[in-house]
């Protein structure tokens, strides 16, 4: 099903059957693939920490000032001007977690890789900005994550929550540590398209994960490559048959999981407000019709085309241009959709 959707979308983009060029991974090569690992954004001198096969408190004890206990609380600091938690590598986050590195940052806050002293594993902790609207969204996300975990014992579809706590007025959500997002992987490999077989496997899992949420009457509302994480950070470097160089990187495993449920909504809730990141937003949202489960499926289609081409399908920030691009790719929108449109919303020039 995912293959048909991706192929059909690719045909629509060009207006003719898409013929894939013969690429390096189609050709047998005597050279063997090389294996590597992507790391996230590092903060501080933590190279030796990341090389440790079994990280522990002892590994980063050298980062702490002399006389500071390993489980001591860090000094009190003011948040930055945007409400982000200010930290240093090697400090504790509560007494249970040791900060190893910064994995990423977004509007909501920061994600840190930490050592969990109790479970003896690396975890990812989202530290939410000390701003009420983000704290409220974090509590919604915790509720959704707990419901997903309860109904997915194998942890197959969505990131698994381990714990949550309030630390110095910041909601902290502890989850399993996963690999890079599909967007990060594309970015680090020059936005080269994925092979169709890999897209097929990713697409199948993506549709299964969305169907799992929909069975629970949950709508993600913000599906995009940034919110789909590879389970593993490992990649393979494929040899170029022309010169023998290793210039092509692909994920070693196709396993993925969904993340970021701060915007998730239950089907019975109000569904009249704007949802989804612009490039993955369904036409009914732009036209002010309200939205439901199909808005997630539209986003999935946009994502699969992006993996096929390496480029965002609808690259715009203007409602009218967005609708015109949809018309160009898919043909005219159904008349009944246009007749019910909220013209004040759909004709606003720059919404985001």
TrEMBL record:
Residues 97-352 form the Protein kinase domain. Signal peptide: none annotated. One of its GO terms (molecular function) is ATP binding. The keyword Kinase applies. The keyword Kinase applies. Transmembrane segments: none annotated. Keywords: ATP-binding, Kinase, Nucleotide-binding, Serine/threonine-protein kinase, Transferase. This is Protein kinase domain-containing protein. It comes from Zea mays.
């Amino acid at each position: 099903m995912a293959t048909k959707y991706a192929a059909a979308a690719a045909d629509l983009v060009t207006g003719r059957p898409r013929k894939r060029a013969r690429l390096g991974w189609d050709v047998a090569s005597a050279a063997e693939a090389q294996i590597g690992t992507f790391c996230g954004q590092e903060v501080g001198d933590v190279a030796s920490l990341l090389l440790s096969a079994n990280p522990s408190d002892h590994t980063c004890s050298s980062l702490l000032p002399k006389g500071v206990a390993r489980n001591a609380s860090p000094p009190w600091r003011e948040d930055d001007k945007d409400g982000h938690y200010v930290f240093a590598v090697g400090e504790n986050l509560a007494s249970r977690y040791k900060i190893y590195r910064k994995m990423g940052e977004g509007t909501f806050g920061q994600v840190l890789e930490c050592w969990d002293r109790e479970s003896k594993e690396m975890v990812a902790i989202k530290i939410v900005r000390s701003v009420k609207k983000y704290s409220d969204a974090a509590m919604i996300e915790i509720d959704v994550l707990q419901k997903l975990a309860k109904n997915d014992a194998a942890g197959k579809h969505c990131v698994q929550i381990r714990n949550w706590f309030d630390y110095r007025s910041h909601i902290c959500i502890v989850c399993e540590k996963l690999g890079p997002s599909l967007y990060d992987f594309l970015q680090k490999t020059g936005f080269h398209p994925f092979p169709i077989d890999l897209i097929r496997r990713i697409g199948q899992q993506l549709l299964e994960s969305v169907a799992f949420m929909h069975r629970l009457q949950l709508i993600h509302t913000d599906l995009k490559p940034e919110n789909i994480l590879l389970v593993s950070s490992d990649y393979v470097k494929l040899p170029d048959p022309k010169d023998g160089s290793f210039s092509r990187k692909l994920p070693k495993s196709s396993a993925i999981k969904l993340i970021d449920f701060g915007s998730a909504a239950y089907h019975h809730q109000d569904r009249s407000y704007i949802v989804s990141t612009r490039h993955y937003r369904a036409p009914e949202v732009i036209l002010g019709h309200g939205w439901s489960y199909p808005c997630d499926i539209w986003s999935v289609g946009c994502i699969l085309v992006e993996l096929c081409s390496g480029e965002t399908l609808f690259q715009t920030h203007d409602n009218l241009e967005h609708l015109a691009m949809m018309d160009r790719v898919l043909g005219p929108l159904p008349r009944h959709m246009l007749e019910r449109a909220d013209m004040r919303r759909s004709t606003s020039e720059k919404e985001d």
